[in-house]
Amino acid sequence: MNPPASRKQISKKWVHYILQENMRMKSNSSTIPEVTIKEFKVGQGTKPGEGYQSELVTLDIIASHNTDDQQILPDVEYHYMIKFFSKEVHSRETNKRYNSHLKEHAIYTEIIKDLNNFQAAITGDKFPIHIPDLIYGKANKTEFILVMENIKTTGYTTNDKYEGLDYEKLKEAIVQIARLHAISYAYDKSHNILQTYPFLEENNEMLVVYECFCIMVLDYMRELFSINKELKYLAKKVEISKDRILMKLKECLRSSENHHVPNCIIHGDCWSGNFMFKNEEKLTCMDTDRADEPRCRVVDWGNTGWGSPIKDLQYLIYVSTTVETRKEHLESILQLYYDTYVDITTRMNVLVPDWSYNSFHREWKNQSVYGFCIGLILNTLTLSKLHPWVYNNQPSVLDNTMCFPTRMLIEGLKLGMYKLMVPIMSKPSAVKHLSGMYKMSFKTTKEELLSGKNKALNKRLIDLFQEADEKGLLD
Fold it and tell me: Does domain 157-475 fall into CATH 3.90.1200?
């Protein structure tokens, strides 16, 4: 049965189909109970202004099951999260261009399952990687849908992005990432991951995107510093060090070419919003059978790739923690990551050459510019309340059925423009023009920064600059 392409196409017939298929997949019997859909409800899966890289919706179902002897069992509730391509043309086509949908589909249907089976056979399942359970999935050049368990209904929540991860949650996230890195490194020694999944290979087109966003934020912050008497010294330092920072950023982004680092599968979008933590306070007495569930699950795998594990670490720590947490706990967090990684590879009898703690820590320092830059970019995108992607994801008058011909015409024009411009704009020679376009698009974010009204955003970015200055990155 053909899957829906968006929430509007979800039908009772399709809901019945995925329930029946899921029961068939999990059943050890040749016969399964017949499902009757009594009620289903489709809702918004993200808060307004979020989820701009995909369309995320909830699906809540009440169903009854009939056994072979016609016995009617009690009604059962199912709670799912469904992921589609984004409705927004640019995001949708970008995901297709960089195979984000194929990566995420492979993660849920094959890769994590293979990695978990691999480590379980050797370690007795001591180091599982935790993700939501997959119910149904399909991905190809034109289609993308993932149906997963909605773990929010079982007591999982994301951390408040404005507060940053505390030490305990940071440790939970670090352990999951260390498992992903270590197990995939070991698995690759006998299975050649890139041969099986060539779309995981690093795409250098993204270098231009990162560079342009970094230019934008550096220029915005230089302007902010220039009007702040106490921070004016940073404006001059940013101006002097900007070109050197960008050059070092590009070197870090090519770090998969560094043979001193044990390359592995990396998450690629490793910030607090993609870790869901078990909130015991939200469980009811009916959920006692879930007491042994993992405390942390990792979601949103569309940026998965093959590269340096240091990237995920820098990303997580500088996007998802406050400077206070870093100053107090950074060294213990790095030690936890290293100890977890080495424990796993040792138990799997896989030697990681030249990977002492000192070597690891040296690579961490060598890629500190990446942490600084990715912190600037992602904190701007995730903490800003006024950036354009927030508005692009809001309901539009064009969603009205009567406006369908107009919407299709506009989307066709956008698609044509995207396909014309992207091959040109992804080249290094386009950096100047593309960064200029970003500055125009994100002018509301610039106004937000200069106004100082978003205190969490301003503090996070200023802290990153002051921290970078202390490390000598701006000298």
Answer: yes
Enumerate residue ranges in the chain where pLDDT < 50: 283-286, 288, 391, 393, 397-398, 404, 407
Nearest one of 243, 206, 215 to 446, comparing CA atoms: 215
C-alpha torsion angle, residues 116, 120, 123, 124 (rounded to 10):
140
**What would the two tokens of residue 312 be?**
């995920």
Residue keyed to tokens 């068939």: 24
The C-alpha atoms of residue 201 and residue 305 are separated, in whole angstroms, by 6
* 99 φ/ψ angles, rounded to the nearest 5 degrees: 60, 30
Q: What is the pLDDT of residues 430-444, one digit of tens each?
A: 788 888 888 988 999
d(C-alpha 202, C-alpha 307), whole Å: 7
The token duo for 438 is: 């970003």
Among left, alpha and beta (phi > 0; psi -120 to 50; other), residue 268 is: left
Compute the distance between CA of residue 154 and CA of residue 177 in angstroms, rounded to an integer: 22
Residue 151: closest CA among 297, 302, 301, 22: 297
14: which residues sit within 8 A by CB, 6+ positions away? 1, 3, 4
User: Which residue is it, tokens 């019997």?
Assistant: 29
What is d(CA 342, CA 356) in angstroms, rounded to the nearest whole number? 9
